[in-house]
Specification:
The complex is a heterodimer of chains A (374) and B (276). In chain A, 22% of the residues lie in helices and 33% in strands. Chain A is an alpha+beta fold. In chain A, β12 and β13 form a beta hairpin. In chain A, α2 crosses α3 and α3 crosses α4. Chain B has 276 residues and is mainly alpha-helical. Chain B has 14 helices and two strands, in the order αββααααααααααααα. The chains are: A alpha+beta (374), B mainly alpha (276). At the A-B interface, β6 and α2 of A face α8 and α9 of B. Bound molecules: adenosine-5'-diphosphate and magnesium ion (MG).
Amino acid sequence: MPEGRMSEAALELRGLEKRFGAQTAVAAIDLQVQQGEFVTLLGPSGCGKTTTLNMIAGFITPDAGSIRLGGRAVENLPPHRRDLGIVFQDYALFPHRNAAENVAFGLRMRKLAKTEIAARVADALRMVRLDGLDKRRPLQLSGGQRQRVALARALVIRPALLLLDEPLSNLDLKLREEMRSEISTLQRRLGIATVFVTHDQDEALTMSDRIAVMRQGRIEQIGTARDIYERPASVFVATFIGSTNLVRAKPAGPPSEGLVPLATAAGPAILRLDRPLAAGADLLLAIRPERLQLTPTGTAPDGSTAWPVRIEGVTYLGGRLEIALRLADGSPATAHAMNLGAMAWQPGHVADAWFRPDDAWPILDGGASDGAAP
Amino acid sequence: MVPYLLVAVPAGFLLAFFVAPNMILLSASLLESEGMVPTGVLTLGNFTTLLSHRIYVDAIIRTFGIGLAVGALVVLLAYPVAYVLVRTTSRWKNVLLALALSPLLASVIVRTYGWWVLFNRDGAVNEALQALHLTARPLIMLPSTAIIIVGLTHALLPYGVLTLMAALNGVSPNLERAAISLGAGRMRAFAATTLPLTAPGIIGGFLLAFGVAISAYATPAILGGPATQTMATLIYTFMATLLNWSLGSALGVVLLASCLTLLMLTALVSRRRALT
Ligand SMILES: Nc1ncnc2c1ncn2[C@@H]1O[C@H](COP(=O)(O)OP(=O)(O)O)[C@@H](O)[C@H]1O
Ligand SMILES: [Mg+2]
């Protein structure tokens, strides 16, 4: 372990900002990554993920804010002394050096003894299951193998923090899923603090301890995969990750026993919330399609919210069916149903769409959070 | 039929205007001549004459010296320019590129006379030096080999920039960043990644500048004088002033052979590059 006590956060960003001309690429980012933690920056292309990584790495100087690595301010630490392992989107393997030489580079810069370098390079290549390919040049390796060399090269220097910038986006789907679990496993085994950048929600959801959802240079929400998916703080988060139904709603009375009644465009609803909602707040009720279930009219379970809907279309997706609905107010909604064989629902049918009090989440319309009263 | 025609026309053109004159040149260099008229007598005398006279040998050596200096200067000056132009994310990038290539807009003659205007005995540089009382009398900067090198370097710089930009465009800027993240300082990272990876561009740019410089006529003719003859100006002297076509042809052959050797070197370098 480099300087900095184990108790310090591996990375701490405070008010980090970067502008390019008139354009703000990163606006006041606050983020802490604990030792051993895997944090993902998730956001659409151009939202400032790479710029953030480049500031952490020292390739770009921030306009404002502070960066601490292992508790130590790094503003005056040049990039080659920051002790970071970086995996680039294009891997950035040295094309004129073979796999072993690529991996050895960081150790040679640290002026280690030849024998130690050889031993550590061999270990690192074995760790990423590339033993035997050490003499291959990058061009003689497959995409997945290059990816592994890049990982080995970044990890062999035992960095305090690992930065990965969309490392899987150049791989085909199957390999991507394989590398996903491989990177996760490796990261857990080594216990190395990691910042992973992606625009792919599946990667973020499956790999991360915590996800920071970014939009236009800001962190819109930060939390576990479950937080982000089930309790989105904004419409952007709710719609960027997975798909969701959004229904206009307002509180319709005081809560009782943790249950809050709402009046929505599709009919009355009941939610379970641990905090009261501000009276009269304009809300958007977010309901994931897989939580919205269909049942013949009048047969929804007691205590659930049931809305009358009309079935507009059924799309066959193999393992499941995507059912297009129209709500009471005429707005569209989507429900997912397991494909259990019988095609019970046909366009034109009228039914009830229902969900439990825990299956919907209120978002304050036009803003963040759940509209909870202060 | 049409494909053959497509090849035949340019091939015929090359044959008539490139191969044939060079064959005549080659044969003239091996014949004795009386005045402008080559006789039928075979001889190597033209080449021995060239190699046994100090002024001719000097001109050949000077020409190669100029080629080496221009090649090296073009690469050294063009590399940083090309590097900045390729790596900058500034929105002025295209303006900068246009500026770097703007010398191409003026003809070589105009550009070369520009240097003459600056550096001749009564030129701008001498007047400035005297006005500032840095020198009492005008400096003789022209004609000289140095000013020929300056003129040629200036004329060939844009080609160097273009060649090196092509090479640099093929090298991801992330390579240097990767090297830096692994603990290499900026220069070290550059030397370990971008520099070796652009070596073919460096060699190509050098050979291009070298080849054009040793066969350039206008610049050494305008900025040079009798004491700074190069192969090209000497050939002109043989042909047009001394009316000795055989000697001129022999020197032409020497120049041509140098250029061909160069071409083969280039091909060899790029072959080796392709194999690795
Ligand atoms: N060097 C630069 N000069 C000007 N604008 C830049 C530069 N780098 C990034 N940007 C802009 O900043 C924004 C964020 O870019 P980036 O961090 O690369 O996004 P991401 O990695 O999330 O796709 C983008 O709009 C991009 O165009
Ligand atoms: Mg990016």
